[in-house]
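Ticket #400: bound-state structure for zinc ion.
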Amino acid sequence: MLRLDLGDLPVASSETARHINRRIVLNLIRDKQPISRADLARFSGLQRSTVSLITEELIHDRWVVEGTTGRLPRGRRPTLLLLNQRRRIICIDIRPLRTAIGISDVNGVFSFQELIPTAADPHRAIRNMLQRLRPLLKTRSDGPFEGIGISLPGRIDLTTQELVFAPNLKWPITDLKTVIERETGLEVALENAANACALAELWSGRLGAIRDFVAITVSEGIGTGIVSDGRLVRGSSGMAGEFGHFPLDPSGPLCGCGNRGCWEILASETAALRYYSESTARVNKSRHSNLEFQGLLALAEKGDVLAGKALDKMAVQLARGLRMIVAALAPEALLLIGEFTAAWSRFEPRLKTEVRQQTLGSVPVSLIPARDGAIVRLRGSVALVLQKHFGLSFAAPASK
Ligand SMILES: [Zn+2]
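RESOLUTION: The complex was predicted; output attached.
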């Protein structure tokens, strides 16, 4: 229940103990709010006096507020504590065509969401984002902003915090963190979108006791965030989970990474649109040059046979990659994120059949569609900011 990362707290100083106790109390308030100080002591096993000191500090730091009074059969009514909903986070999810910007409170409840076009040039894209953020930052009087979380379709260098590998965005090495921190005065946390989604699942606790799972984001490309024993796996270079660029067909189409036949060039939204465009060209059917993936889903839904076949082809390729992940990591669950989950009844049987064939032991892998794809990605950005305070089971970047 306590998603606590002890990995970065190696020395048992009194400061360390204070830090751990603060995280425990903060997480208990989050899980059980509104809650009394007496119940916090009971659930945590900490002394009442320690709980009082920590809660006073949390109230002073504006993480926690006093709410209504609780009921007791007799005696003084306790004041209940809850997270300060006025503390807010700016979350950004950058995708090749569009960037989602949102404002969330510390409970992950959104008060604002907007889409803006993503410029092809990174400097221009950052300028556009800042232009949109400035008026939002002026609403600070509604409550303080804790920081900015940014999910990206690429990989972040663990040391420099620069975006270093983004084949679908096609940006060169880009330092978003320094520029946006300088212009907004807020701390920026960056992460690969699939890792951020995995983190958001740990944060939300929706997967319950599942501690080994892989979050798979299927959009313009395919990203995977690996969680093993409740911790995000980054690998030595921060590049762990690049299954999207594993060549399933070395003679296949050229991928944005420079290789041929990568999983994502065969199984992403872009792949399905390409399958559709190729098949309509063959039968001289009118071309939908500006067709987007949601349009393809709608065509299939309306009974367009070629649109349905394009999605089926995507499903077959998606399933092949999932088998590879199951073979490599034997997770308990695969969490599937993306607009394709809106057509889950079409995808599920194809994915299940293929994945079951890879389940060599007795425990089947659960396929869980995260149907609210866009929000899942934004929630990932929220988790990036909050994990610093709440201590999720998450390996923090080396530079932090
Ligand atoms: Zn590739």
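RESOLUTION NOTES: The mean pLDDT is 88.
TICKET STATUS: resolved
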